[in-house]
Design a protein that fits this description.
Elements (H helix, E strand, L loop, with lengths): L4 E6 L14 E2 L2 E2 H11 L5 E5 L3 H9 L19 H13 L7 E4 L9 H13 L4 E7 L8 E3 L5 E3 L3 H4 L14 E11 H7 L7 E5 L11 H14 L1
Parallel strand pairs: 1-4, 1-5, 6-10
Antiparallel strand pairs: 2-3, 5-9, 6-9, 7-8
């Protein structure tokens, strides 16, 4: 494997669903600390940076060995700010100091059970597949083809294929196609492609699969409770 890799950990101070989410404790340390330590122990990452607008997150990240060399602009710390713009800002900050990278990875603080091996594995998968980008994925808990929606009369209807649930014999889950979803742990892209497409999803995106046990993404209070319960069970 060749090329320099930058890992960006986005960790803004605000959060709608879970107040101060990136500082919430899971398994004895804040969420942002898990991400800092995971990229710090990954062997393929050449440089890692925490992008935050929040003084407390900056202090905590540095306590756990994180590099926080700049303050994220307020315009990139709103609820509507795009993650790709946060990553682009980090790349521009390094470019202004004549530091360039071949691959940039976004490592979200909200996935605490990701491992350094997952970070390495995802980026290696990008190179091994000769892809332009890689996204970590995991299997759905329930088959997406079982999805139903509610119409204006409060009646259910199949969202995708009517012959799956609305059938004489409902197919077993093991007989349906095995589908995966992005889990938010690691997204990485070649920087030349990122400069052109401003996205981690390209026509040549490969996947790195992680088990559900390492794929919990803390997006709401239930996710946080689930992560804490799993951490307590493991202890």
């Amino acid at each position: 494997m060749t090329g320099r890799v930058l890992a960006v950990i986005p960790a803004r101070g605000g959060s709608r669903r879970v107040p101060r989410k990136n500082l919430q404790d899971v398994a004895g340390k804040p969420l942002v600390a898990h991400a800092v330590e995971q990229v710090g122990e990954a062997s393929v990452v050449d440089e890692a940076v925490v992008s935050t607008d929040d003084p407390e997150i900056r202090s905590v990240a540095r306590k756990y060995g994180g590099n926080v060399p700049f303050e994220r602009p307020a315009r990139l710390a709103t609820d509507t700010a795009a993650s790709v713009d946060v990553v682009a800002h980090a790349l521009d900050w390094f470019a202004a100091r004549d530091e360039t990278f071949d691959v940039v990875a976004m490592v979200q603080a909200t996935v605490p059970f990701r491992t350094p091996a997952d970070v390495d594995g995802a980026i290696r998968a990008l190179y091994e597949a000769d892809a332009d980008s890689v996204v970590t994925v995991s299997e759905f808990g329930a088959p997406p083809l079982w999805s139903v929606a509610v119409d204006d009369d409060d009646l259910l209807y199949p969202q995708f294929q009517p012959d799956v649930l609305w059938a004489d014999e409902v197919p077993r889950s093991q007989d349906l196609p095995r589908l995966l979803h992005p889990n938010g742990a690691v997204l990485a892209v070649r920087t030349a492609v990122f400069a052109e497409q401003r996205s981690f999803y390209t026509e040549r995106t490969t996947g790195y699969e992680m088990p559900p046990s390492r794929s919990i993404d803390v997006d709401n209070e239930f996710d946080l409770d689930l992560a804490r319960a799993l951490a307590a069970y493991r202890e």
